[in-house]
Amino acid sequence: MKGSRMINPMVYRFLILCLALSACGANARTKGLQTGLVVLNASRDTVLQVSRTREKQIVEDCLAKTPQCTKAEVRSQVDDWRSKVDPVFAALDKAYRVLSSAGLLSDMKSASEALAAIAEAVKLSKELKP
Amino acid sequence: MIDIERALAIGNVALKAIDMIEMAARTFTNAMATGKMQLSSALDELKQMHETLKTDRDKTDSDIDKKFK
After folding, report:
1. Which end of chain B has the smaller Cβ count within 10 Å, N or C?
2. Which residues of A touch B66 (CB under 8 A)?
3. Domain ranges of chain A
4. Closest Cα in chain A to B2
5. Do A114 and A99 contact (CB within 8 A), yes or no?
6. What's the pTM?
7. Consecutive sets of 10 residues in chain A, 130 residues long: mean pLDDT of each?
8. Which residues make Cβ contacts (< 8 Å) with residue B63, sequence separation at least 6?
9. Which of B13, B28, B64 lies nearest to residue A23, judging by beta carbons?
């Protein structure tokens, strides 16, 4: 016999190393995605707050500063603002969807795509001028 | 003849290896489960964004209708 049918201990070590490395890789990837989610949530909350404040300001300014301000004028100003902020919400929407897809997969490509989409959404959020 | 001591030693090494494989597999499974949780969290947050945005815009539209008749 002489242990000829036993698996070589070196093979066990290699197998354990592979499993441990894949576990560490998966963990780092997951942590990266979780951090991305936190950053994305913070951006979303900021953009929502900015949008809410700006719309309120448009309505109040129209009433206070120009008493002759018409409903059509205020409507037009609000629509202008929404056309400015909508691409930011679209980028946030895309980032959430790509992030959720990356959560289903386990490859690095999907994770880097998710992080790129998050970076784009954060960039647009920062560029938004009320 | 079977060498009992050698057989026991090999068995011991095999058991330890199985323990280590099981531990690594459990860590891997936990990491995967956390990754799956990411999916539902991201979709929940997205849903919340659209709901809040709709509520805010409805309020603005309602204010415009009330204040500008």
Report:
1. N
2. none
3. 9-127
4. A1
5. yes
6. 0.70
7. 53 53 64 88 95 94 81 93 97 95 87 93 90
8. A56, A59
9. B28
